[in-house]
Amino acid sequence: NAGVTQTPKFQVLKTGQSMTLQCAQDMNHEYMSWYRQDPGMGLRLIHYSVGAGITDQGEVPNGYNVSRSTTEDFPLRLLSAAPSQTSVYFCASSYGIPPVGYTFGSGTRLTVV
Amino acid sequence: GQQLNQSPQSMFIQEGEDVSMNCTSSSIFNTWLWYKQDPGEGPVLLIALYKAGELTSNGRLTAQFGITRKDSFLNISASIPSDVGIYFCAGRGDDKIIFGKGTRLHILP
Q1: Pick from B40, B42, B92: which is nearest to A99 by CB?
Q2: Which helix (H) or strand (E) holds B31?
Q3: For testing the chain B interface, which of A47, A55, A57, A102 should be mutated: the one with the most B CBs within 10 Å?
């Protein structure tokens, strides 16, 4: 069982570039979410999904898009990267709506220069 | 929006000491969760609490769900070097899980 798989693990982007952070889970969890972690700020919710075809905004959604075409996959798109988006990004999934408790991926460390 | 206040922000302790950290909120939560994050990894669930007043242990870790449903604490007894890391509390409201800013635990040699 792989759990929650995030790719890539590291990425450097130039300002204005776009990219997609991939997240896949093999636990048949309905609930998936994206967080960003910045020093001293804890984990802040970007977007979440309660099932295929359903997404909603979290605390800090600006500059990010998501889609959920399958139960397994929940990609996060940066439309035009900015230095303020330099962060560590975590994907997490949970069974139950509302979520019972998360299983996290190992993170993507993104640097925007 | 809902916010969690986690304290302390960091702790420096000697190996073998007990540790206590807590989370408070102005909002009521249905579930309290405690996670630990090792460097370079995602957070891992340590303890989940589902009922007000609930006291749950996991080895040397003990956590409690406050009676008012607005707070929770985590205790670690007899700390060891592998306890180093960041500990996050999290509260589950109606449809989201909100995280505290974390307590960074350092263990002095």
Answers
A1: B92
A2: strand B31-37
A3: A102
